[in-house]
């Protein structure tokens, strides 16, 4: 490992230090600990790549642990989605674990704490408890229930477990220090009453352990050596350690918590709670809407696992929170799609071109490369006929010399085909161009080897044969939020920044080879961008998502 030390991030340095100071590689064990209260998002990808990356680097096991202690918000659907996303990103967990697997052990330990006089049942209202807790600058005061006897605590805690009490009436608190400078140490709650069925333990329990009481002990049970979490838990570390002190057997490995910065992406939100709000308010069609920052949304949009991993690798692991521009993610996406995507032609805003000197009814199948970046991708045949579509914006009656597309009297090459010249055009009563009449140079066919075929003209246009064009629904996406950082405004809710034009649905006209395209297939529509087949697609009606354009037009617009 030492030869790569310079490129290690600070988390890897922590592990390296521990290895120098007595840990052996076989002591290393990591975990990724999502709460199944929503779908994973791009922020989670950082944590996944960090933990599973460490696993690969040190050949150490990595558990997938569901932190499922709040049945009010957690569901099996989310568990399934999380597993699918981690796998899709390309990682394998050692064992699948659930905090709920440890409910009995946690309960037994809680009883021990009560017996040692280190935990008590509090019956104050949550309001009273908040007041009694003090403020960061003012010490708290003891609860009137703090000095109950062990016997009384055991009895009431038993009643809590037996379902005798309503939610919010009783909690079990650790007896630590109401004067601690760390508010989290002022007798934190370990258990609350929740009369809710749990997706795994059903109605076995009506008291549920809190995050702090659960997380470190779960790490300990699993013998996780390093428990990496995000910075908002930095203050929790003291409590994590206090709880561990209560249960750790010196023979066993003691987990350590260390923190790294959350990753935020521009023009979106990365919080399950906020993403759930978008779903519940029908701002999007679901968790996997291609505009979402969820892994499932990115997948449906056409992202590859490689592009996400490369992005995460590039941004690295930081000690301070910051905002990453989404165009960096898109850069990695384009970079990968460019290497792997078959090239096809499709016209999204068509105008008809008639090639007047081409025989009516004739169809010529032109040989075309599938991917100039990848010879092994082979070739395919595309039909050329007298009537074709080109993009409206690729034709102007008159234009200056910098317009390298089609204009009256000018020539362009049709991609993989012939050189055509615009002779005249037809307009409707509003002045819109409805048809362009062209002639073609029969000797100019691409790849035919003739002198004319090598003739250079400035512009090359994509096109499709009208008779062969497949009609498809094409969904074009824009940023979901108009603001770079929608959830950081003090006076405005993030929902106020939703871009009303984030989805545009149009009809595209595509080359016939795409009739075979299947859900998830990715293509470059030449000159337009990268597109993929949406799961809504059927044999009767193809549906494509625009994944990303060929160039970063967004960054350019921002710099204007
Ligand atoms: P959310 O607010 O979206 O629910 P969370 O942190 O509550 O996020 P968890 O399911 O608890 O979500 O997260 C699992 C792991 O992923 C945790 O270790 C958490 O710190 C990490 N994580 C979550 N969001 C990010 C992020 N934006 N950047 C980096 N790591 C993250
Ligand atoms: Mg959470």
TrEMBL record:
Residues 125-145 are annotated as: Disordered. It is an enzyme of class 6 (ligase). Keywords: Aminoacyl-tRNA synthetase, ATP-binding, Cytoplasm, Ligase, Nucleotide-binding, Protein biosynthesis. ATP binds at residues 35-37, 230, 270-272. Its EC number is 6.1.1.18. Pfam families: tRNA-synt_1c, tRNA-synt_1c_C, tRNA-synt_1c_C2. It is found in: Cytoplasm. Residues 341-441 form the Glutamyl/glutaminyl-tRNA synthetase class Ib anti-codon binding domain. Monomer. HAMAP family: Gln_tRNA_synth. This is Glutamine--tRNA ligase.
């Amino acid at each position: 490992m030492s030869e790569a030390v310079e490129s290690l991030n600070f988390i890897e340095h922590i592990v390296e230090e521990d290895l120098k100071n007595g840990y052996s590689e076989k002591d290393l064990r990591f975990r990724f600990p999502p709460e199944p209260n929503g779908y994973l998002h791009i922020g989670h990808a950082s944590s996944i790549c960090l933990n599973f990356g460490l696993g690969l680097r040190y050949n150490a096991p990595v558990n997938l642990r569901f932190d499922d202690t709040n049945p009010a918000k957690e569901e099996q659907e989310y568990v399934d989605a999380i597993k699918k996303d981690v796998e899709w990103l390309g990682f394998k967990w050692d064992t699948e674990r659930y905090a709920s697997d440890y409910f009995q052990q946690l309960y037994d330990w809680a009883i021990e704490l009560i017996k040692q006089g280190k935990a008590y049942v509090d019956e104050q209202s949550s309001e009273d408890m908040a007041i009694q807790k003090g403020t960061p600058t003012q010490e708290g005061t003891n609860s009137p229930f703090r000095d109950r006897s062990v016997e009384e605590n055991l009895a009431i805690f038993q009643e809590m477990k037996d379902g005798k009490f309503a939610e919010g009436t009783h909690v079990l608190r650790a007896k630590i220090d109401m004067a601690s400078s760390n508010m989290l140490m002022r007798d934190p709650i370990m258990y609350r009453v929740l009369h809710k069925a749990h997706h795994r333990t059903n109605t076995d329990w009506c008291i549920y352990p809190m995050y702090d009481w659960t997380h470190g002990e779960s790490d300990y049970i699993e013998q996780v050596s390093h428990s990496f979490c995000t910075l908002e838990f930095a203050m929790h570390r003291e409590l994590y350690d206090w709880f561990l002190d209560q249960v750790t057997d010196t023979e066993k490995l003691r987990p350590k918590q260390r923190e790294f910065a959350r990753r935020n992406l521009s023009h979106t939100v990365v919080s399950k709670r906020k993403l759930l709000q978008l779903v519940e308010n029908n701002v999007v069609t679901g968790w996997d809407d291609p505009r979402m920052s969820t892994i499932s949304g990115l997948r449906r949009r056409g992202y590859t696992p490689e592009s996400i991993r490369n992005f995460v690798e590039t941004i690295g692991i930081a000690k301070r929170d910051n905002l990453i521009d989404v165009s960096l993610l898109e850069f990695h996406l384009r970079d990968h799609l460019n290497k792997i995507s078959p090239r096809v032609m499709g016209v999204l805003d068509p105008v008809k071109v008639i090639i007047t000197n081409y025989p009516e009814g004739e169809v010529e199948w032109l040989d075309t490369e599938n991917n100039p970046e990848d010879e092994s991708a082979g070739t395919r045949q595309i039909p050329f006929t007298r009537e074709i579509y080109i993009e409206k914006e690729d034709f102007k009656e008159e234009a200056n010399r910098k317009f390298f597309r089609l204009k009256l009297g000018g020539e362009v090459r049709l991609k993989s085909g012939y050189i055509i010249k615009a002779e005249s055009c037809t307009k409707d009563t509003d002045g819109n161009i409805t048809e362009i009449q062209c002639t073609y140079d029969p000797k100019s066919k691409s790849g035919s080897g003739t002198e004319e075929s090598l003739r250079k003209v400035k512009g090359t246009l994509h096109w499709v044969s009208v008779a062969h064009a497949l009609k498809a629904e094409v969904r074009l996406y824009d940023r979901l939020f108009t603001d770079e950082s929608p959830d950081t405004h003090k006076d405005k809710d993030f929902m106020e920044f939703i871009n009303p034009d984030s989805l545009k649905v149009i009809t595209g006209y595509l080359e016939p080879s795409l009739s075979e395209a299947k859900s998830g297939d990715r293509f470059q529509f030449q000159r337009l961008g990268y597109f993929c087949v949406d799961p809504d697609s059927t044999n009767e009606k193809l549906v494509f998502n625009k994944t990303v354009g060929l160039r970063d037009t967004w960054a350019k617009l921002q710099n204007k």
